[in-house]
Automatic annotation (TrEMBL):
The lineage of its organism: Eukaryota, Fungi, Dikarya, Ascomycota, Pezizomycotina. It holds the Pfam family ParA. Belongs to the Mrp/NBP35 ATP-binding proteins family. It comes from Exophiala sideris. It comes from the Eukaryota. Keywords: ATP-binding, Iron, Iron-sulfur, Metal-binding, Nucleotide-binding. This is Uncharacterized protein.
Amino acid sequence: MRKCFSTCARQLSHENPLVSLVSSHFHSNTHYRLVAPKHHPGPVLNPPNPRNANKYSKGLPRKGAPPTLPRMQRGLPQKRKLRNVAHTIAVSSAKGGVGKSTLAVNLALSFSRHGLRTGILDTDIFGPSVPTLLGLSDVSEPKLTGQNMLVPLTSYGLRSMSMGYLLPNEAAPVAWRGLMVMKALQQLLHEVDWSPGLDVLVLDMPPGTGDVQLTIGQQVELDGAVIVSTPQDIALKDAVKGVGMFRKMNIDVLGMVQNMSVFVCPNCQTETKIFAHSHDDVGGLGGAEAKATDLGVDFLGDVPLDPNICADADRGMPTVVAEEASGKNVNSQYYERIAEKVAQKIGLGWA
């Protein structure tokens, strides 16, 4: 693991040459230290001249046009498919706390249960959730292939990779600057060995519409994005931003999912939409369903508000797996219906 992220330190040395990074992410006695270069004079705008000594000792000239510095012209990176992955979809919310990671894992497990070779990639560098959701919080770090590729871990028949697997424990913070985060993301995207191949890879995106989302959208050929929201306006406002971001990057929005939308009575199985927004319904719809209609994207379905879903996630046995083991099919049917719609949209068969 030391070799896997060793180049991160070099990337940061020019940004703050005095910063000292002590890393215990891979081995408790491994230390990385960023030090200032011995000689770093900075740019010289004009050749030194004794007569101009006072002028240059006070900094840049205060008058006249600023100097023109040469710039390297770069275009956007070329999009490419991830190695050994046939289809890639992003699960995004643009807002934290709406159950996006729980939905992403259950969506991936639903694909797997229907004969699709499936993986999930946790792209949230600062707050990875996949290890907890899959019961892999205490496992040893991933192995490396002969080509220094990370080998995914497997749980419940689902292959996964996460920054959380590279940390010494769940409480360890990832206090990194942008360059380090981008380097880690590049390695998670392009240096994971998914061989012999996946039919579909689910990307669990971090909250927001920032660097990670833009990097993935510009570098990876995505088959589409699933937007997760709750019925509340405060969540829907950010979901709208997420839809707009993917559209600006010419990425197909497969649809919206409304999480925590339906309370299912444990006795009679009656569904009650306790967060319904009757004041702004569109054709009798409410919440994310109405917003999806307004935005012109498909509504993929509801997921119930059920404490069992939370309990399943916390104990590392997602609902699709937990209900499969108990012989019940109360909440997993919602995830499977959403997964079927997504599979059909990206051209995958559904057994």
